[in-house]
């Protein structure tokens, strides 16, 4: 770990001011950033601790929720309104990490966690276009069983490791930001980037911009929702594939549906094509399979992860079948 | 209270306790015609009791000092810089920025490290402890990807860790052999283990296989595994008056002292290694470069050095289990009697160690077969030396062998337990020796009854509960009884009726100190509280490796030898005024704080009384047991019958173990509680071997890519069901206490039991470990 300056922000404006002055990174629970600093993959000259900022979970006038970015994952997962209105979010959060880590991790930090690609983590020993753009990617042709099958590039096949963000993508969450140039907001599905030829740029955050809150719009569809995570052991492992799904039926037809995948791409993957294939159609096993195929037709597996395509298809169909059964 | 009164009370105590029976002295050897250790018949004393571990309170209180917890004045803290190429020479090694960083005391590289001899490699000498024979930081040559190239020494660990990142190295890389397939294409060499070829041949097995009415023939593969003891490897090193002192985390204190002495060119006695507590060994806590580097750094800086490896550094510089590729072919008649047994394959090692993963070991004594061909071939890679890891050979060898047995049982439509029992050998098939103790049939009988084996559905893929297919499987576990030469113990008996044992043995968390305290107390006829077991110090007697599950026997035999010497000395001291006068050692035994004539419980004198009359405060004896000739006369093994129930998800291929039972035949169990934990721990490690453990060794660079507990998967709590264990408790008449060590057997057979259960659940036979869900989609 490199020496760094530590600051604690009083409020969002203070945090932005300090970060700009110190060229700092924002520190939430530190559950990922501190690890990366220990590995010298991140070498910020300064940290501005933003865990003192808003951790309020408040109802919005339209019936949604505004979640302060410093809210701990555990607090969000346990919140009665989240459990009642957005059960898939609670399930996604508790599917990740361990209780100790969830007690520390913040909502803002969760959005910014970086990939677990083993070549990304091997600062000295491997090439990685995320760490040093242009030097090459050792995951291609290496161990890539955990890696992306959707939206990847020849520069990077890493996946975003978050569970929570997969649920947020399905829930059409909005990310509120504050930066040197003022405040703005972005849909979560636009917040993370695909790797393209600049995998070092993982989000649309401008330099110095701070996540202040995540907003959940009302989502009647989420009343029937699920998060299913498939991994290599029963707990404490990143997703090979995960599915966040919400389904609303009317007269045997799909009135509304939200689907997102984790473990398949450089960002939480909203399955727009699958949703479009389902909306207004019969909720049948065949339709679910066809929807999965529509989404996964673009999949481009690598040497070690071809199974993910079939696994994603099966998991999506199983989740939708369960939800349809629960609705009926 | 005066000593005399004390003694009187002890005598009275002895008289009151005469309902019990004195324990005769154990024989001084285990050879044909000899008598067994009388302790094996002692059913009402300390032996076998579930005594809670004596070091438990210390550990719970955080008061048990581990190797990285010895505070010393002026300590410097070390961090290791590792090579990132597998072969070649260091071109540039720029340490100026690191040296200039805050708190840095020195940066040690091959340029300024003290000159040393290369270490004697494990198995090259009875006292050798090193994982390989490569020189340690003596030149610019790189032998493996991960080799230490610099050691940064600073006033704090954080300063050392930071400065380490400032060391800049470039390399003249040379061609390296890091791909097993490429190495195999160049040809293999015969494997040799402990001086013996890993090769056995009885008749023409290939011919018999071809002629057999029923046959199975398949290849099984297992990946590399890394050591992941909860306590990271660590050492605190300093020199005082020409003596090197190491507080180490080791399972070989005396071996380490000798090996370090050889390297530094000093006398063995000038190296003192202590290791009072070790947080898991499993074969990995021997001598690797870190102890040597710390000792060198202490010499270089003139200050004590603490080197606590990071998890990544453990992966880079402490060897693990090598991968294997094993062919097992079985030919049988229609009754299931084996006509041919072939177990052969390839495993990589380095040119610098002598440890091919000996996966045919369990097969040598497992089954009667008319013909047999067992063979291990090796290829040599440019990698970190592989090493011993819990049941080397048996853990992965039984996966292949016992999977194949299950495949044959399926081909024969026969109960796999019946198939195994039908092929029980009358004597060791490859050695021709009688078995010392083999009650595997009883382990199977009791285990299958407890598990409910007869209620299983024999048809694969036929039991379903929602998305989950359910199946059961079984396999034989087996591990040898070893006792290595070199044991010795000192026994001290004091006038207050207390005894202590001194032996250079080890406690890595398995309960050695507790179980051996029970044994010693039982032999001497003392309460547990009156016995102290001292260990973990190279200045104590004995060369006692805590490896090969041999420590139980080695300590046991050493204490027996010391006990005989003690009793002889006591009888001498007792003299003609004693009620024991005229008796010799074999006529008396320890009982209630003294010695009694075996067949006349009235003739007793307490230890206190004997010492008191002789005017002695204590008696100290030291003795060595005879050579382990028992293993020359008998084939000595532990066994187990392993039962597993799994659930396999039909959608995702996820596997969950829902039940596990290990039914063991390991001689007499010394402590029911610590032994059960050893069995369970082994089984848990076996579940990891079956389902998730895998070192990702990238053949392009010869580099381990998952040196972290986040990416190298071990079972978490939710992966481990309730594990039931039971044992025959039938003593081995040819072993001290009738006991076998139980540290390794639990991991054996487990992988196959899981794989066989998965077959029963799904009809899919997975022959490639770990059985991850993608293999079941």
UniProtKB/TrEMBL annotation, chain A:
Q: Outline the extent of the FAD-binding PCMH-type domain.
A: 1-221
Q: Which InterPro entries match?
A: CO_DH_flav_C (IPR005107), CO_DH_flav_C_dom_sf (IPR036683), Diverse_Substr_Oxidored (IPR051312), FAD-bd_PCMH (IPR016166), FAD-bd_PCMH-like_sf (IPR036318), FAD-bd_PCMH_sub1 (IPR016167), FAD-bd_PCMH_sub2 (IPR016169), Mopterin_DH_FAD-bd (IPR002346)
Transmembrane stretches in the record are none
Q: Which GO terms describe its molecular function?
A: FAD binding; oxidoreductase activity
**Record keywords, A-Z:** FAD, Flavoprotein
Keyword Transport assigned? no
Query: PANTHER family from the entry?
Result: OXIDOREDUCTASE, XANTHINE DEHYDROGENASE SUBUNIT C-RELATED
Full protein name: Molybdopterin dehydrogenase
Q: Which organism is this protein's natural source?
A: Caulobacter endophyticus
TrEMBL record, chain B:
> Gene3D superfamilies, alphabetically?
Aldehyde oxidase/xanthine dehydrogenase, a/b hammerhead, Aldehyde oxidase/xanthine dehydrogenase, molybdopterin binding domain
Location of the Aldehyde oxidase/xanthine dehydrogenase a/b hammerhead domain: 61-175
Stated name of the protein: Xanthine dehydrogenase family protein molybdopterin-binding subunit
Domain of life the protein comes from? Bacteria
Q: Which UniProt keywords apply?
A: Molybdenum, Oxidoreductase
Q: Give any GO molecular function from the UniProt entry.
A: iron ion binding
**Coiled-coil portions:** none
Kindly give the Pfam families that the UniProt entry links to this protein. Answer: Ald_Xan_dh_C (PF01315), MoCoBD_1 (PF02738), MoCoBD_2 (PF20256)
């Amino acid at each position: 770990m490199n020496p760094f300056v530590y600051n604690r922000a009083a409020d969002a404006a203070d945090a932005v001011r300090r970060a700009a002055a110190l060229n700092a990174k924002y520190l939430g629970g530190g559950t990922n950033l501190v690890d990366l600093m220990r590995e010298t993959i991140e070498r910020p000259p300064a940290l501005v601790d933003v865990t003192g900022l808003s951790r309020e979970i408040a109802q919005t006038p339209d019936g949604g929720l505004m979640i302060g970015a410093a809210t701990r994952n555990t607090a969000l997962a346990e919140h009665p309104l989240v459990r009642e209105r957005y059960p898939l979010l609670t399930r996604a959060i508790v599917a990740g990490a361990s209780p100790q880590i969830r007690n520390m991790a913040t909502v803002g930090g969760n959005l910014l966690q970086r990939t677990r690609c083993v070549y990304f983590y091997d600062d000295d020993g491997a090439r990685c276009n995320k760490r040093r753009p242009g030097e090459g990617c050792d995951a291609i042709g290496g161990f890539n069983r955990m890696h992306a099958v959707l939206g990847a590039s020849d520069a990077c096949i890493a996946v975003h490791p978050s569970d929570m963000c997969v649920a947020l993508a399905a829930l059409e969450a909005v990310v509120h930001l504050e930066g040197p140039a003022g405040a703005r907001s972005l849909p979560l599905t636009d917040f993370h980037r695909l790797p393209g030829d600049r995998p070092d740029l993982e989000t649309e955050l401008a330099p110095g911009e701070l996540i202040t809150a995540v907003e959940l719009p009302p989502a009647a569809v989420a009343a029937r929702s699920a998060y299913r995570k498939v991994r290599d052991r029963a707990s404490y492992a990143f997703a090979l594939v995960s599915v966040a799904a919400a389904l609303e039926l009317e007269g045997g037809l799909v009135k509304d549906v939200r689907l997102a995948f984790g473990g398949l791409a450089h960002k939480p993957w909203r399955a727009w094509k699958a949703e479009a294939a389902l909306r207004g159609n019969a909720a049948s096993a065949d339709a679910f399979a066809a929807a999965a195929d529509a989404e996964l037709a673009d999949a481009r597996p690598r040497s070690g992860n071809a199974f993910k395509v079939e696994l994603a298809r099966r998991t999506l169909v199983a989740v939708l079948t369960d939800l349809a059964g629960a609705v009926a | 209270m005066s000593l005399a009164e004390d003694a009187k009370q002890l005598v009275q105590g002895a008289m009151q306790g005469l309902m019990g029976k004195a324990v005769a002295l154990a024989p001084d050897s285990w050879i044909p015609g000899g008598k067994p250790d009388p302790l094996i018949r002692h059913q009402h004393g300390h032996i076998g009791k579930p005594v809670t571990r004596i070091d438990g309170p210390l550990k719970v209180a955080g008061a048990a000092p581990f190797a990285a917890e010895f505070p010393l004045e002026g300590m410097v803290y070390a961090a290791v810089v590792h090579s990132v190429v597998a072969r070649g020479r260091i071109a540039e090694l720029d340490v100026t920025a690191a040296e200039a960083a805050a708190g840095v005391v020195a940066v040690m590289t091959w340029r300024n490290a003290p000159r040393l001899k290369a270490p004697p490699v494990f198995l090259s000498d009875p006292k050798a402890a090193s994982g390989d024979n490569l020189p340690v930081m003596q030149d610019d040559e790189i032998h493996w990807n991960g080799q230490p190239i610099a050691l940064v020494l600073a006033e704090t660990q954080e300063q050392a860790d930071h400065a380490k990142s400032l060391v800049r190295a470039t390399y003249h890389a040379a061609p390296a052999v890091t791909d097993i397939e490429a190495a195999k294409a160049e040809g293999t060499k015969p494997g040799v283990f402990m001086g013996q070829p890993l090769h056995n041949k009885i008749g023409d097995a290939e011919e018999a296989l071809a002629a057999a009415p029923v046959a199975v023939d398949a290849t099984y593969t297992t990946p590399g595994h890394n050591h992941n003891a909860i306590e990271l490897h660590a050492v605190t090193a300093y020199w005082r008056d020409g003596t090197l002192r190491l507080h180490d985390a080791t399972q070989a204190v005396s071996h380490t002292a000798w090996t370090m002495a050889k390297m530094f060119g000093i006398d063995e006695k000038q190296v003192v290694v202590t290791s009072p507590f070790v947080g898991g060994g499993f074969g990995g806590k021997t001598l690797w470069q870190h102890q040597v580097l710390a000792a060198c750094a202490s010499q270089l800086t003139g200050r004590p050095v603490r080197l606590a490896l990071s998890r990544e550094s453990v992966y880079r510089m402490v060897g693990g289990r090598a991968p294997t590729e094993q062919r097992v072919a079985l030919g049988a008649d229609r009754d299931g009697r084996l006509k041919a047994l072939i177990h052969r394959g390839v495993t990589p090692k380095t040119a610098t160690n002598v440890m091919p993963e000996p996966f045919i070991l369990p097969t040598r004594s497992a089954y009667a077969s008319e013909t047999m061909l067992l063979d291990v071939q090796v290829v040599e890679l440019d990698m970190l030396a592989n090493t011993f890891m819990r049941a080397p050979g048996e853990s992965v060898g039984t996966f292949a062998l016992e999977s194949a047995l299950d495949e044959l049982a399926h081909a024969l439509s026969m109960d796999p337990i019946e198939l195994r029992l039908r092929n029980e050998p009358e004597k060791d098939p490859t050695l021709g020796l009688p078995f010392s103790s083999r009650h595997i049939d009883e382990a199977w009988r009791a285990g299958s009854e407890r598990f409910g084996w007869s209620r299983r559905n024999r048809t694969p893929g036929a039991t379903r509960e929602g998305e989950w297919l359910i199946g059961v499987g079984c396999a034989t576990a087996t591990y040898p009884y070893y006792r290595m030469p070199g044991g010795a113990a000192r026994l001290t008996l004091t006038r207050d009726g207390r005894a202590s044992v001194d032996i250079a043995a080890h406690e890595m968390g398995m309960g050695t100190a507790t179980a051996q305290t029970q044994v010693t107390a039982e032999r001497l006829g003392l309460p547990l509280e009156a016995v102290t077991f001292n260990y973990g110090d190279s200045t104590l007697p004995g060369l006692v490796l805590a490896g090969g599950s041999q420590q139980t026997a080695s300590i046991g035999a050493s204490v027996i030898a010391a006990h005989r010497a003690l009793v002889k000395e006591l009888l001498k001291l007792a003299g003609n005024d004693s009620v024991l006068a005229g008796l010799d050692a074999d006529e008396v035994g320890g009982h209630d704080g003294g010695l009694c004539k075996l067949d006349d419980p009235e003739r007793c004198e307490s230890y206190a009384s004997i010492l008191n009359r002789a005017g002695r405060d204590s008696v100290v004896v030291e003795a060595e047991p005879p050579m382990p000739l028992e293993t020359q006369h008998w084939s000595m093994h532990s066994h187990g019958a392993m039962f597993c129930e799994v659930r396999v998800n039909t959608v995702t291929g996820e596997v969950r173990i829902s039940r596990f039972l290990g039914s063991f035949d390991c001689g007499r169990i010394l402590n029911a509680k610590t032994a059960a934990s050893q069995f369970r721990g082994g089984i848990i490690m076996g579940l990891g071997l079956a389902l998730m453990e895998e070192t990702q060794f990238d053949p392009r660079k010869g580099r381990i890519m998952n040196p972290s507990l986040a990416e190298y998967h071990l079972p978490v709590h939710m992966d481990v069901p309730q594990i039931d264990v039971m044992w025959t408790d039938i003593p081995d008449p040819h072993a001290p206490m009738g006991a076998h060590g139980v540290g390794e057997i639990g991991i054996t057979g487990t992988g196959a039991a899981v794989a066989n259960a998965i077959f029963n659940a799904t009809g899919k036979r997975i022959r490639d470990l770990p059985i991850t869900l993608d293999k079941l989609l």
